[in-house]
Amino acid sequence: MFKRILIANRGEIAMRIIRACRRMGIETCVVYSTADKESLPVRMADVAICIGPGPAKQSYLNINNLIAAAELADVDAIHPGFGFLSENSHFAQIVRDCKIEFIGPLSSSMDALGNKAKAKALAALAGVPTVPGSVGPVSGPEEALAIARKIQYPVMIKATNGGGGRGMRIAHNDGSLVSGFEQARREAEAAFGSGECIIEAYLQRARHIEIQIIGDQHGNVVALGERDCSTQRRHQKLLEESPSPVITPAIRQQMCDDAVKLAKAAGYYNAGTVEFIYDIDRKAYFFLEMNTRIQVEHPVTEMCTGLDLIRLQIEVAAGLPLPFTQADIKPQGHAIEVRINAEDWQNGFAPSPGKINMYVAPSGKGVRVDSHCYAGYTIPPNYDSMIAKLIVHGKDRAEAIQLLNLALGEYIIEGPKTTIGFHQRLLKDARFLNNEVTTKFVDEVFLK
Ligand code: MV4
């Protein structure tokens, strides 16, 4: 097993990784920017190394500084967390070239799945359903029009190198398709270094459902159930739950099987998430993309399966085989996670960084809080605005919702504005309670 791990991240996930390492008897080295000097991971880790100033480009995204810190601390492995360099195949390769293990998949798997056209082709080859649309990148507006005529409007234009909702556009007619395609190409060129786009049918009454998988370096891949992440605002997830309240056991089984098929086709190991879009009316799902990192919402799966996903990531990175088979996985009960952000939800979710004057988190049976915050902590303006993830686990959805209501009511955060009030309102909305939410719900229905 590794003796010392470098954590190339900050905030809540850095805390989460430190705790997993402690339980495993592994030493931790955390890197930090000057903006995070007073942060909890810096206090909690065995070693902390400053890697630059506040702007992420000069610190958490600075590969040279990260490698220098890893060499200085003499670590065996690097955990990238999520965001920052976690899905950067170039970084993963440099780390391995330095004889340090990257806690994640091979760069070749990241490359095969990080490009939407390549990932979709791989899924189709593996027999996993994909959304009707272009086969590979679209050459120009004429081909775009021909495809739209075949699959019918509305269609979605997606940058092949985009992801998580970045570089996407919806077109409802020929005019908006031609203008949208050219715009999408220009924007993708500037943002992702490639203007390549695909086109597919836009499913409007849909749920966003993803399957957590974990693979080892011996060819074993196991699906750990789904998370329903349909409650999003501008592609920022606000609430995630498992099991999905809208799919049948048969559909769940097929989605899990398909996620494993895709992972195996990509030679994938470590933790990953296969995203599907589920068409509510047709009761059919289609592969969207694969995320080659641990995700923010992984605790939802941990609560239902009883597994420690960070520990498993470290174990499989060290070459150990998975300690279970697919038959051992029987998710129990219902888990819900909400993201508590320092945002003014009544004012367009505007960031609300600053000092936390008072902080009391809820606790008790079935209640989990993953956070790096404390009374007196100042949330820096440089990074995302997440204060905490509040996760509850009950015997069924109704009990989980009750626990969540109680926990939100107990949470005291004074100073920044937070999304607690948003979640309290969401939990009382009949459409949420009756499972009528679609991916468009928060953007188009909930907030005018
Ligand atoms: C879609 C889709 C509907 N049809 N693709 C968003 C994140 C990225 N991973 C893929 N996403 C979507 N792709 C097709 N063909 C719906 C989403 C989607 C979404 C779209 C608009 C507004 C909110 C959304 C939330 C989740 C998923």
In short:
The protein is an alpha+beta fold and 448 residues long.
Strand and helix layout:
Blueprint (H helix, E strand, L loop, with lengths): L3 E4 L3 H14 L2 E7 L6 H5 L2 E6 L10 H11 L3 E3 L9 H9 L3 E2 L4 H8 L1 H10 L15 H11 L3 E9 L2 E6 L2 H19 L4 E5 L4 E10 L5 E13 L2 E7 L6 H17 L4 E10 L4 E8 L6 H8 L3 H9 L16 E8 L1 E2 L5 E2 L2 E2 L2 E3 L6 E5 L6 E2 L6 E9 L2 H14 L1 E3 L5 H7 L3 H4 L7 H6 L2
Parallel strand pairs: 1-2, 1-4, 2-3, 4-5
Antiparallel strand pairs: 6-7, 6-8, 9-10, 9-12, 10-11, 11-14, 12-13, 14-21, 15-16, 17-20, 18-22, 19-21
This protein binds ligand MV4.
How would you describe what is shown here?
The protein is 34% helix and 28% strand. The protein is globular. With 448 residues, it is of the alpha+beta class. The chain has 3 domains: 4-103, Rossmann fold, CATH 3.40.50.20; 132-201, ATP-grasp fold, A domain (Dna Ligase, domain 1); 206-446, ATP-grasp fold, B domain (D-amino Acid Aminotransferase, Chain A, domain 1, 2-Layer Sandwich), CATH 3.30.470. An 8-stranded antiparallel sheet has the order 13-12-9-10-11-14-21-19. A 5-stranded parallel sheet has the order 3-2-1-4-5, with helices on both faces. The termini are far apart. Bound molecules: ligand MV4. Ligand MV4 binds next to β8, β9, β12 and β13.
